[in-house]
Every structure is written in C-alpha cells, then in structure tokens.
Specification:
The complex is a heterodimer of chains A (138) and B (180). Chain A is α+β, with helices and mostly antiparallel strands. Chain A has one domain: Trafficking protein particle complex subunit 3 (Muramoyl-pentapeptide Carboxypeptidase, domain 2). Chain A has helices at 7-30, 41-57, 80-83, 95-112, and strands spanning 63-66, 71-76, 117-125, 128-135. In chain A, β1 and β2 form a beta hairpin. In chain A, 36% of the residues are buried. Chain B is an alpha+beta fold. In chain B, α2 crosses α4. The chains are: A alpha+beta (138), B alpha+beta (180). Chain B: InterPro entries: Bet3 (IPR016721), NO_sig/Golgi_transp_ligand-bd (IPR024096), TRAPP_component (IPR007194). Chain B: Its main location: endoplasmic reticulum.
Chain lengths: 138, 180
C-alpha cells in the first residue's frame, strides 16, 4: 500500500494499527460464543459489517463485495471518523491517520475469530472509504 | 428474549467495552512513548483539554441546558447531564467548600477502568487524567477557569474515585478556541 507523507508518518500509522489490532483482539475475546457461531468465512465478514460496525459506529457498512477467493472489499460511503473532517479531496492526505486504528481493529477481531488477514483502507474522496480484507492462508 | 433484543444489548456492551479498551490502548501507548508517569499525566490532561474544548459544543447542542447561574448549577449539570451523556454514570456531588467554589465528584464506578489494573511500576500514573483535562477545557469554553484533579482513585486502592473541582475565576475575554 503506498504510504504518502514523511517516513515518520509510516511509523505512527503502524503504531495506530497495532493499537487497533490489540483492541480488536480483546474485543473479539469478550464476545459471547453463541454470537460467533459462524458457518463460513463470509458470515464472519458479514458480522464485521453489521454487528461490529454497528457497535462501534452505530451504523452498518454500506456494501460488502468479494471475489470468493479470500479478498473482501467493505465500503462505507460515510465513514464516521471522516465525516466531520470534510468532503471531497480536502484532507485526503490526512485520512490514513484516521483509518489506521480501524484497520487494526478489523484485523484484530478477525484474528480472535481464527482468521489471519491483511487489512488496508483507501479513500478516494471523503467521507467515503473502502477497507480491503485479504485472508492470509498458510 | 428475541434475537433482535439480544443484538441491541450486545451492541451496547461491545460499544462500551470498545471505549474502555481503546482508552486503555491509548494510555499504554503513552506509557511507552513517555519515560515517566508525570509526563503521561500531563499528556493525558492536554489531550483531555483538546477534547473538552470541542466536546462542549456537542454537549450544548445535545443537552439543551441553559446558562448556569452559579457553580452549584454547573456542578449539577456536569454530574447529572454531562457524565450521564458521555460515560453513562452519575457521580454524586459532595464536600462543598464554605465559599461554594469547590466540590467533589464521587464516582462509585469509572467505566474507563473496567478490567484495568495498575502495575506497581506505574504508581504515580493518574490513569483517568484525561477526564480532568476534558472538564477544564469544556468549562473554559463557557467562560469558567477551573482546576480539576483526582484526589481518590479506586485503581490505587481507594474505596471510590473522587475528582475535586475548584472554581478559579470567570473568564471575561472572548478568546479564540484554545489548543494546547
């Protein structure tokens, strides 16, 4: 994923992502077992889009797409952390700072649910953003 | 209990746990970034202040409370409306000074510290110091200079958590939104 901004920013984004990961892990561990009776991988992603997003942002993800080969694209047309920043292209460079934690959060929750993944986010125009989840199979 | 109702409760629980966990992650990271507890405390206060100067607008918009005429009214609004709105708890107000310029907020439980234990190596850490900064920043925006500090902390073995609020002075000048 291209990293705009000075090298220092790369480190801070990693730190934020790491924080989000640990929080996501802990959150996943606290969920009741009945809630996590998933039949398949797609159900887990749906859970993230509906339940996790609902609990964290009081809304659901707008769309979930997949190639059925382990890559998922989650789209939020009005991501709450970006909504108050602006709309359009202003602050595009700043946007990654507000997405890093959430990427980690998704990755951490997936991790507790037994799924190893790589999560990245991209913003074409505020406040819409896409989260890409790529399942890592060993 | 219907699945729908279950979902609502779970969502709320997840949301409050997320809040507690995120705050914990924040404090943990600050402890890594700064060498000593005093610096972390200062940083938490500063961050709280920056949050408070903006939070006040959200609070005023959502709560519809009118102007407070004295510090007693302010205390009531803080405890019964603000704390309830943002932390889901209602601290009690006690220990008014004879001059009516100081009081204590007593919290029986503090949502920021659920499942948190303070290790011995961080005995001077004021874990929830962000709250003091928020109170200071928010009140400054409504023309009140105050001091807020923790005098009892359940995290350190005290029975309750107590924030002492002290009114310093009314701010007369209309300064632009502060940032530290």
């Amino acid at each position: 994923m291209p990293q705009p901004g000075p090298p220092g920013q790369k480190t801070s984004l990693l730190v934020l992502e790491g924080m989000g990961f640990r929080v996501g892990q802990a959150l996943g561990e606290r969920l009741p077992r009945e809630m996590l009776a998933f039949r398949e991988e797609l159900d887990v992603l749906k859970f993230l889009c509906k339940d996790l997003w609902g609990a964290v942002f009081q809304k659901q993800m707008d769309s979930l797409r997949t190639n059925h080969q382990g890559t998922y694209v989650l789209q939020d047309s009005s991501f709450p952390l970006l909504v108050r920043m602006g709309s359009g292209l202003q602050y595009l460079e700043e946007a990654p700072k507000f997405l890093a934690f959430t990427c980690g959060l998704l990755r951490g929750t997936l991790s507790t649910l037994g799924i190893k993944s790589l999560v990245t986010a991209s913003v074409a125009a505020l406040p819409a953003c896409k989260f890409q989840v790529v399942i890592q199979r060993s | 209990m219907s699945r729908q109702a279950n979902r609502g409760t779970e969502s709320k629980k997840m949301s409050s746990e997320l809040f507690t966990l995120t705050y914990g992650a924040l404090v943990t990271q600050l402890c890594k970034d700064y060498e000593n507890d005093e610096d972390v405390n200062k940083q938490l206060d500063k961050m709280g202040y920056n949050i408070g100067v903006r939070l006040i607008e959200d609070f005023l918009a959502r709560s519809n409370v009118g102007k407070c005429h004295d510090f007693r009214e302010t205390a009531d609004v803080i405890a019964k409306v603000a704390f309830k709105m943002y932390l889901g708890i209602t601290p009690s107000i006690t220990n008014w000074s004879p001059a009516g310029d100081e009081f204590s907020l007593i919290m029986e439980n503090n949502p920021l510290v659920d499942f948190v234990e303070l290790p011995d190596s961080h005995s001077s850490l004021i874990y929830s110091n962000l709250l003091c900064g928020v109170l200071r920043g928010a009140l400054e925006m409504v023309q009140m200079a105050v001091e807020a500090k923790f005098v009892q902390d359940a995290l350190k073995g005290d029975g309750v958590t107590e924030i002492r609020m002290r009114f310093i002075r009314r701010i007369e000048d209309n300064l632009p939104v502060g940032e530290e």
